[in-house]
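To the wet lab folks,

You asked to see what we're planning to order before we commit. Fair enough. Below is the target structure as tokens, and below that is the sequence we designed to fit it. If anything looks off to you, flag it before the synthesis order goes out.
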């Protein structure tokens, strides 16, 4: 597969929607996670990321402007032992609870399907990192309508072992800005992962469409020690 510059993919797409990047740092010593949200409506744009335990949650920036909390208020990132879960919806909790019951990532997600927001039928995109023996592997999953047919759900799971230094995979909800919004197609895209956490955070945030971007979460996990660093950027700042 072709390797893309992440900044190029983002800057050339006004509305990828919500996106997940998972990969390994250039020096090979850290796992890298990024999750961003965008919005076209006032309700979608009225959000911020806030830390919650070892993860994050979305929160209304101005509660008086929140018209519908469903589908936009959730915990995108949660940690369970040696596993970190990142998703674009409340299926984070479905995976978390499923893992506690002994289910695998993809089996837990079989309880869910795309979001009920026809005619878009926004895909549910999810990722999980498995940390073990001072290294990691990861999975990505997408639940999407069958070419816009809301009566059928297509399910795809991708597993990545021994991630390559300086490389990641990028999955997002929409191919581009259109009405209705076309769902992501194909395998998660291969992208470059470069710089330290601050440089990578700046690269992603500055590449997102200025009008539509809302919030960004970036985390690195040092494989030798398990030490984490986290950055959160919110367009809405009090």
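Sequence we intend to order:
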């Amino acid at each position: 597969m072709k390797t893309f510059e992440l900044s190029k993919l983002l800057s050339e797409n006004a509305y990828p929607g919500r996106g997940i990047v998972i990969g390994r740092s250039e020096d090979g010593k850290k796992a890298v996670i990024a999750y961003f949200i965008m919005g076209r409506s006032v309700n979608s744009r009225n959000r911020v990321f806030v830390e919650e335990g070892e993860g994050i949650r979305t929160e209304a920036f101005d509660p008086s402007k929140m018209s519908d909390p469903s589908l936009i208020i959730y915990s995108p990132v949660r940690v369970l032992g040696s596993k970190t879960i990142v998703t674009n919806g409340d299926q984070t909790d479905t995976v978390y609870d499923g893992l506690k019951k002994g289910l695998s990532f993809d089996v837990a997600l079989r309880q869910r399907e795309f979001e009920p927001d026809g005619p878009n039928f926004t895909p549910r995109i999810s990722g999980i990192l498995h940390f073990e023996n001072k290294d990691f592997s990861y999975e990505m999953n997408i639940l999407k309508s069958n070419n816009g047919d809301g009566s059928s759900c297509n399910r795809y799971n991708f597993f990545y072992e021994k991630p390559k230094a300086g490389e990641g995979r990028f999955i997002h909800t929409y191919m581009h800005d259109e009405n209705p919004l076309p769902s992501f197609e194909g395998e998660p895209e291969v992208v470059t992962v470069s710089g330290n956490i601050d440089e990578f955070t700046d690269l992603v945030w500055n590449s997102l469409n200025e009008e539509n971007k809302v919030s960004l979460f970036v985390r690195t996990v040092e494989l030798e020690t398990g030490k984490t660093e986290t950055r959160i950027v919110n367009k809405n700042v009090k």
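Structural context that might help your review: Residues 197-207 form the longest helix (11 residues). The chain has a mean pLDDT of 97.

Thanks,
Computational group
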